[in-house]
Fold this sequence. Notes:
The protein has helices spanning 2-10, 14-37, 134-147; strands spanning 43-57, 62-74, 82-84, 88-94, 97-105, 110-111, 116-129, 149-162, 169-180, 194-195, 197-198. It is α+β, with helices and mostly antiparallel strands and 205 residues long.
Amino acid sequence: xxxxxxxxxxxxxxxxxxxxxxxxxxxxxxxxxxxxxxxxxxxxxxxxxxxxxxxxxxxxxxxxxxxxxxxxxxxxxxxxxxxxxxxxxxxxxxxxxxxxxxxxxxxxxxxxxxxxxxxxxxxxxxxxxxxxxxxxxxxxxxxxxxxxxxxxxxxxxxxxxxxxxxxxxxxxxxxxxxxxxxxxxxxxxxxxxxxxxxxxxxxxx
Length: 205
Ligand SMILES: *[C@@H]1O[C@H](CO)[C@@H](O)[C@H](O)[C@H]1NC(C)=O
Ligand SMILES: *[C@@H]1O[C@H](CO)[C@@H](O)[C@H](O)[C@H]1NC(C)=O
């Protein structure tokens, strides 16, 4: 009889168990919320770029060019992966007109939490046609050629999904580059790292 009483009183009381249970649930909820509740968007930077050729042929409205771009993508989330639900592309634009599109990452490619991936994009063409460049583009080209520096925009576009999230989110980042022409045989020019600007996310992203 007495022993029974002793056992009942020595163990944690029912109230204490409830309190511990509630605290654990709150902590678990807080951890899950911190891990998956808030999406932090990927960041894009161009760490290096070099333009070794950029010739406009006005008769064919096309560029003969060689350009390399080092695009660095970082996932700042500590628990969520970022998965590409469509191929991620980069468009190269001069005077707002696209003269090249290169694939940065394939559909299904994943960027794990906290990780950084470096894409070394190297492209060139004898004739990258830009039908929309027009006379205005040619004028701008001549102006920039005088300076020996060309303004080229890298526009990254893709669609991603974050772990534990249902919605697919469009990703659009623009990186305005000012590239000094450095033909082969001339000294390499220093490149100032460029932070790309992310377009505002859609609802639920
Ligand atoms: C392209 O430009 C380079 C100088 O950057 C020049 O040497 C070359 O002749 C040009 N080529 C054409 C086809 O215009
Ligand atoms: C420049 O681009 C052309 C493609 O038109 C390619 O054949 C050539 O190897 C490239 N040059 C360099 C230095 O990458």
